[in-house]
UniProtKB/TrEMBL annotation:
Coiled coil: none annotated. This is ATP-dependent Clp protease proteolytic subunit. It is found in: Plastid, Chloroplast stroma. Keywords: Chloroplast, Hydrolase, Membrane, Plastid, Protease, Serine protease, Transmembrane, Transmembrane helix. Cleaves peptides in various proteins in a process that requires ATP hydrolysis. Has a chymotrypsin-like activity. Plays a major role in the degradation of misfolded proteins. Its EC number is 3.4.21.92.
Length: 198
């Protein structure tokens, strides 16, 4: 039985008390969740939230928690570009999985502020397409565009990880899964979160 969106009690800055859904409250604290497949709708929602909150004169960091299998390349690149163009830093935190374009968004966090939880997994690979569904003429055009995207994505990974382009390109040839510590060694994240001792 679904429980719906949880609601919590909130006191606004002017002292007014109200029940608000938990996401509304979380967004006010500049916390975002990329959970699920990256598509046009999800990317537009995250982009609009980041832009809206960056209009505030206070340039406090934003936090993007990622648990995503990836998705549409262009939608993911739009999120990445928005993160790079806003005044506040965007800290990225991988909890669970950051695969494909989600790992691209993860590496796009502010350098020194990219984190993975200890049991998180990261996967990078080359962009894919559904070329088999197109006609021959479109196939050639789409293949050229795919090569341009691969070149751009490889360049960004190389720049943000400090790895040579040839290393990143070789790693992207097939699905390259990494543990949190391997992702840190690779330069995709800067820190692995420390679990508290009980």
């Amino acid at each position: 039985m679904p429980i719906g969106v949880p609601r919590v009690f909130y006191q606004s800055p002017d002292g007014e008390l109200a029940w608000v859904d938990i996401y509304n409250l979380i967004y006010r604290e500049r916390l975002f969740f990329l959970g699920g497949t990256v598509d046009g709708e999800l990317s537009n929602q995250l982009i609009s939230l980041m832009i809206y909150l960056s209009l505030d004169k206070d340039n406090k960091d934003m936090y993007m928690f990622i648990n995503s299998p990836g998705g549409w390349v262009i939608s993911g690149m739009a999120i990445y570009d928005t993160m790079q163009s806003l005044p506040p830093d965007v800290q990225t935190i991988c909890m669970g999985l950051a695969a494909s374009i989600a790992s691209f968004i993860l590496v796009g966090g502010a350098i020194t502020k990219r984190i993975a939880f200890p049991h998180a997994r990261v996967m990078i690979h080359q962009p894919a397409s559904s070329l088999y569904l197109t006609q021959t003429g479109e196939f050639v055009v789409e293949a050229e565009e795919l090569l341009k995207l691969r070149e751009t994505i490889t360049g960004v990974y190389a720049q943000r990880t400090g790895k040579p382009i040839w290393v990143v390109s070789e790693d992207m040839e097939r699905d390259a899964f990494m543990s949190a510590t391997e992702a840190q060694t690779h330069g995709i994240v800067d820190h692995v979160a420390v679990q508290k001792q009980k």
